[in-house]
Amino acid sequence: MSDVRQIIFGGESGRFASKLRHSGLAIVAIFALSSCSVYVEPLMPTPIIYEVNDFGPLDGIPAAEHWNLRRVYYATTRTRDDDLQKIDYSNTESDQVSVGMCLVGFGSENMTWEDLSNASRSTHRGSVVPLSIAGIMEVGRYPYDASGPIPDKNGATNWLMTDINESVATSRDRDILIYVHGAKVNFYNAAVFAAQLDHFMGRDMTSIAFSWPTRQNIFAYVMGDDRERAYRSAEGLNSLITMLAEKTDARRIHILTWSAGGRLVASALAQLRAEHPEETPEQLSARYRLGVVYFAAADVPGDEFVAALPAINDLAQRIVVTGSSKDEALESAKVFMGGSTRIGQSSVELSDEQTQTVLKANRLEYINLSKGTESRGFDITGHRYWFNHPWASTDVLLAIRTDLNPAERGLEQGDLPMVWWMPDDYPQRLKSLGDLSPAELRR
Known about the structure:
The chain is an alpha/beta fold. The protein has one domain (3-441). Helix content is 40%, strand content 19%.
């Protein structure tokens, strides 16, 4: 195998609050009956960019928006739970995409806005900040198929797109972020992760959780059933992107996906490209306005990703892939599920032909988070590093929230143009970006 093949992948807003206050009893009742999750996901560690620059993600937010709850839209291919006492979504696969919105609560009922702001600006917290779903409102459903006009019974889907578009228009950042989760999580997990990513990006964007029906049992994924569910859900994501592009004025639509969600996203974008074989990348960019597609610790076999890469490269403004040599989950996936090495690992074996495909992907950035371990004194490890490690989560934030290139984001270039890594002076590089503020993170 040539050296180059080893290097390629590792050689180196307030409007919704007003609506709630002025809505009728029907809406209030829906939220009252919605699921109040008994699961507890803590607020992720604060990205290091805030600590080194001494500001927080909530700085500068107008007083009228000092509300611990945060709105998140959602689209899910899960079946709605039959329990009439609440709104929730089960592990059962649906033949439709359900859409709506939910409110995610930050902290306990006694947490003040000042408490939340202080907890969000430092990597050292006095206590855990729990995340909860305070309410869910489903507004409609539509079929997976995105090849023609989407039926809109009672105008519900159009109402939601109108609401999302109003959110885009009134937000400080006119971009949309779609979060696609990995395996072995539930609807709650998808919603709260979309909310906290939005939270640490300054609560400026419009966020959407895309939840597919993986079960909370790793064997369902290892044995293949949940993997097939991910691929089948790709068409649902495809149709969501299509609707957002057609019915909103979003500047860019970004996608952040983790682990098994990477298979779903790669498949959806390959399908999307195949629907317009005659269009140029410039035409596709104008049609879909896809911004950053970020594959964090992705459980996508290398050969599968490379096959989809030309299509993704034609659609996205930028493609970011992160990898670690010490991601035990991906190491186990390769052993127990077979297939080629995952793109979330720091070394992917490629054929000569695959190498050429990667080299032609001019919008690809590969971040080898394990390179520089010796000089830094630590590796960036585990399967949850992309939000648990303050360095890794900072690049997620900067890649999506700004138009900065990798060097401007504090990364060091590897032996190839698309390969990057985090040097030991990464925090100082972040500080040297200037007197950052939440406003300056906006485009």
